[in-house]
Amino acid sequence: MFILLRKSLTSSTLLFYLFTTSLYAQDFSIRNGWQLLGAKQKLNLKDFDDSCVKYIWKYDTNTTEALWKLYLPNGTSSSYPNLTETVDDGEGFWVKSDGNCSVSAYNDREVFFSKTTGMPYSGGIDDRIIADISHAQSSIYLAIYEITNDRIRDALIDAHTRGVDVSIVTDDGSKDDDDIITLESAGITVLNDEKKSALMHNKFMIIDDRILWSGSTNYSYYAFYRNYENAVRISSHAIADFYTDEFFELQNHHAIAGILQNSLADIYFSPEDHFKNRLLTLIHQAKQSIYFMIFAFTDKDLADALIDAQKRGVRVKGVFDERFNKNRYSKFDYLKDAGIDVKLDGNPQTLHDKVMIFDDNVTVTGSYNFTLSANSKNAENSLVFTDKTINQQYKNEFYKIYTEAK
């Protein structure tokens, strides 16, 4: 439980606000007039867009002299100095509204890992994805290599039925799958990449121009409940807009190079952004450790860079998917023979992650396998996080998978 000490806007009276932590969303019931609220996790103030909220005041303790700061809807603000757009975990803020409304606010970045033990097909990442689909009001744009999860499929159909603009891009190899045909039969627009020589390998979804889901997960039951997988959820208009542009480029079969550098994550799309160059740079810049979890690793340039990193004193460890390692181009033996600490995963299903963790603050994830095709042919997306908390979350997952590996 947190106790907040905050000063009233209208008097010098000190107010105490108590609350407990919340696992996912914070649901705020906004009433007409002024009220004091508390952040149970880090919030992006833009989460209050399109509500009855007119003003948001935050007491900023990070300045030399603590100040109340005014935020207006849609990301605009007053001319107060050192203005930020977030309310940190454990902070209080005031809201003024001209009516009553309900606002659901989520953390601006959340990381999820697949559920590989316990009751199957319940309580996994797909529950959160379905909740977001169910709350969608205007649009859902989904770029997905494969969808076989009927619960997500039905949630998309329900959203379409209630008037949400639902559009899907998939790989040409998936266009005749049963669930894709069911979605099309329900009236949802589904296009494919029309490329036999490359994959539309993305796994991302944009909801209401604000929420992004990405990561390694195809929309299957095994992805959420059996494989080693990861997903990220980001609440950001800027990142959602950037992914939306990419979605329409995929629809129109016209890729335009462009990298987004954002405080929440740097975003790259393949093949146009040559993400391999960023990976090589990160490997070269690593000072202490590089850990990776990977489904497919066939790129010799990346393998050589890891070997060079270990030679200069960086601790390098990795886990490969055992089944893909039967591919004759896998770099598992190449790295092992060079003295790199690599193992084969112990999951009887699939290690499907595409993750590299650098030192104590940088993490890479997305749909990008460490292959030449991912860099030069396939449609992929990659996220680079510079954040110690996210880094530690992925390290914890790596340690778990590494301990279970062979």
CATH overall fold name of the largest domain: Endonuclease, Chain A
Overall, the morphology is: globular
Alpha-beta content class: alpha+beta
Number of strands: 25
* Name of the CATH superfamily of the largest domain: Endonuclease Chain A
Tally of separate domains:
3
**Which regions have little confidence, pLDDT < 50, spanning 5+ residues?**
1-24, 74-83
Mean pLDDT: 86
Q: Tell me the major beta sheet.
A: 8 strands, mixed
Distance between the termini: 41 Å
Second rung of CATH, namely the architecture of the largest domain: 2-Layer Sandwich
Q: What portion of the residues fall into strands of 2 or more residues? A: 25-35%
Sheet with most strands: strand arrangement: 18-19-25-24-23-20-21-22
Could you name the CATH class of the largest domain? Alpha Beta
Instruction: Please give the share of residues in helix.
Output: 25-40%
Cα-atom radius of gyration: 23 Å
Number of helices: 10
Write a structural description:
With 406 residues, the protein is an alpha+beta fold. It folds into three domains: 2-105, no CATH class; 109-256, Endonuclease, Chain A (2-Layer Sandwich), CATH 3.30.870; 269-404, Endonuclease Chain A (Endonuclease, Chain A, 2-Layer Sandwich), CATH 3.30.870.10. Helices cover 25% and strands 32% of the residues. It has ten helices and 25 strands. The chain has helices spanning 125-135, 150-161, 178-185, 221-225, 237-252, 275-285, 300-311, 332-337, 372-376, 388-404, and strands at 2-7, 14-19, 26-30, 33-38, 43-44, 53-60, 67-71, 86-87, 92-97, 101-105, 109-113, 139-144, 165-170, 189-192, 203-207, 211-215, 230-235, 260-261, 266-270, 289-294, 315-320, 341-344, 354-358, 362-366, 380-386. The strands form six sheets. An eight-stranded mixed β-sheet has the order 18-19-25-24-23-20-21-22, with helices on both faces. A seven-stranded mixed β-sheet has the order 11-17-16-15-12-13-14, sandwiched between helices. It is globular, with a radius of gyration of 23 Å. It starts with a strand and ends with a helix.
